[in-house]
Amino acid sequence: MKEKRRIGAAQSATHVTILDAAQTLMLEQGYAAVSARRVAVQAQIKPALVQYYFPTMDTLLLTLYRRAADLSIDNQVAALSSPQPLHRLWALSSDARQAALAVEFMALANHRKSIRNEIARYSERARLLQAEALATIFADTRYASSAFSAVGISLLLAGAARGLVMEEGLGISIGHKEARAIVEAWLSEVEPAP
Fold first, then answer.
1. In this structure, what DSSP letter does residue 83 have?
2. 106: which DSSP letter?
3. Cα separation of 152 and 143, whole Å?
4. How far is it, in rounded angstroms, from Cα 56 to Cα 99?
5. Which CATH architecture group holds 1-55?
6. pTM, rounded to two decimals
7. Neighbours of 151 (CB within 10 A)
8. Among the four 52, 67, 137, 171, which has the fewest Cβ within 10 Å?
């Protein structure tokens, strides 16, 4: 009988350090730069420790994605329970660092089916959370019986914010100020300041 390989504890400081190092590499150099050796250098540990905590790169990348996705869900839940949930969702979606990380995971998903499946699972969960909250918000507005669907608005807000952040990362700014003004004017109409 083959003995199961021991893996380092998920709650340990080393585990978190490895994930932080992998995330830093992904943000600064892209997902292709994330290897056990580079993560070890970034974390200032021996490469064997990376493999002790994460036996495969898929394990490391999936854990990193799940950590980021769980944090994103937690932030969305907090935003949706705030006095101005639409404004908070827009701000979350417009966060440049999170958008850059999302883009790297999307690119990685083209090469790793396990990441693609997790992105789909978490994205659908997040969209449903948003749609439920937006439906409640819209129930008290003129949008309640209109052609605007909560899930459609959720996708449009997230997509517009992500698109703006991605373009800004490339140095493109034409039309950004105007697009932000349109979204923010609509948000203020639907969700006036308390």
1. S
2. H
3. 12
4. 26
5. Orthogonal Bundle (1.10)
6. 0.85
7. 14
8. 171
Q: Are 40 and 88 in contact (CB under 8 A)?
A: no
Asked whether 141 and 190 are in contact (CB, 8 A), the reply is yes
Whole-angstrom distance, CA of residue 116 vs CA of residue 106: 7
Beta carbons of 20 and 71 less than 8 angstroms apart: no
Q: Could you report the per-residue pLDDT of 60-91, keeping only the tens digit for each?
A: 999 999 999 999 999 999 998 888 888 999 99
pLDDT tens-digit map of 40-51:
999 999 999 999
Do 118 and 69 meet the contact criterion of CB atoms below 8 Å apart? yes
Instruction: Let me know: does 104 contact 31? Beta carbons within 8 Å.
Output: yes
Chain centroid, CA 31 distance in Å: 15
Q: Give dist(CA 101, CA 80) in Å, integer.
A: 22
For the record, the structure tokens of 5 come out as 């390989």
Name the strand (E) or helix (H) holding 107. helix 96-109
Tokens of 10: 């998920």
Q: What share of the chain is helix, strand, coil (3-state, %, to 5)?
A: 75, 0, 25
